[in-house]
TrEMBL record:
The record marks D239 as: Important for catalytic activity. GO terms for molecular function: DNA binding; DNA-(apurinic or apyrimidinic site) endonuclease activity; double-stranded DNA 3'-5' DNA exonuclease activity; metal ion binding; phosphoric diester hydrolase activity. The record marks H265 as: Interaction with DNA substrate. Residues 21-265 form the Endonuclease/exonuclease/phosphatase domain. It comes from Plesiocystis pacifica SIR-1. Probably binds two magnesium or manganese ions per subunit. Signal peptide: none annotated. Keywords: Hydrolase, Magnesium, Manganese, Metal-binding. This is Exodeoxyribonuclease III. The record marks N170 as: Transition state stabilizer. The active site is at Y125, D168 (proton donor/acceptor), H265 (proton acceptor). Gene3D superfamilies: Endonuclease/exonuclease/phosphatase.
Length: 280
């Protein structure tokens, strides 16, 4: 089964649109060798968050660490070669926060919260619930992390800011969001307690931007590297852009780009009216 053609929504890209992209790059140094720099230059993004960079900034080549025409910021894990997030933006962020306030979370380098005018963009690499033996032993940590991020972005939302939370959530929310739900009910990423945590976000008013505009099946953002899962489109939708309710009036398009190679994930994103940045 070929990946379905992505639905176009509302309006096309224009000079008054702000394009925000998210991509679990599965190792930024490896991605750089596969053409990440060329993709970044041509993607049309204004703000690009990447997850699982697995590198310290000083380990990156200059073109990746500080590409021409971009402002960049990285948050790495304490542990070498693990986790980490990066943010590229055409305009500099007014402020970037990188801590949840607990060492057990902050040491893994999973969060960047960048303010651009009245818009806050949280670039987050949510944990996988699998332990070393794929025994779901990290699920309690994962759920605690979800709740800590939720509390942080809720504070920004209550402060009157417009908020996007984007990244690899490591959870497929509904059965429609993975190709084989029945076979994965005991697998981290589709456990009832993980899905309930996403339910809690939606009940609180957060908008799954892609699903709000595309109700159909067959849209995924991650595929196993074993066999031909990607070619057959046997995947999971675990990469999201969630929006606070006050972003909805500015939402023009939400999309997934399964045709982009270079990682076991593909980019996802939204296009917004640039007025989303305006204060007042």
């Amino acid at each position: 089964m070929a990946p379905p053609k992505q639905r176009k929504t509302k309006t096309k890209t224009s000079s008054d649109a702000l394009t925000v992209l998210s991509w679990n790059i599965n190792g930024l140094r490896a991605a750089a060798k596969k053409g990440f720099g060329a993709w970044l230059a041509e993607c049309g993004g204004d703000i690009v968050g990447v997850q699982e960079i697995r590198a310290f900034k000083e380990q990156l080549d200059d073109a990746t660490a500080e590409p021409e025409g971009w402002h960049s910021h990285f948050r790495s894990a304490v542990r070498p070669g693990y986790s980490g997030v990066g943010l590229y933006s055409r305009a500099p962020a007014d402020k970037v926060e990188v801590e949840l306030g607990e060492a057990r979370f902050d040491d893994e380098g999973r969060v960047q919260l960048a303010r651009f005018g009245r818009l806050f963009v949280a670039n987050v690499y949510f944990p996988n619930g699998n332990g070393r033996d794929r025994d779901n032993s990290r699920v309690p940590y994962k759920l605690d992390f979800y709740r800590a991020v939720f509390e942080l972005v809720e504070r920004k939302r209550r402060g009157g800011y417009r908020v996007l939370v984007m990244g690899d959530f490591n959870t497929a929310h509904e059965a429609i969001d993975l190709a084989r739900p029945k076979q994965n009910v005991k697998t981290s990423g589709f456990l009832p307690e993980e899905r309930e945590e996403l339910d809690r976000w939606i009940r609180a008013g957060w908008i799954d931007t892609f699903r709000s505009l595309e109700p159909g099946p067959g849209h995924y953002s991650w595929w196993s590297q074993r066999g031909t899962a990607r070619e057959r489109n046997v995947g999971w939708r675990i990469d999201y852009v969630l929006a606070s309710p006050n972003v909805e009036p500015f939402l023009r398009e939400a999309f997934i780009w399964p045709e982009v190679p270079g990682s076991d994930h593909c980019p996802v994103g939204v296009r917004l009216d640039r007025a989303v940045l305006a204060r007042g």
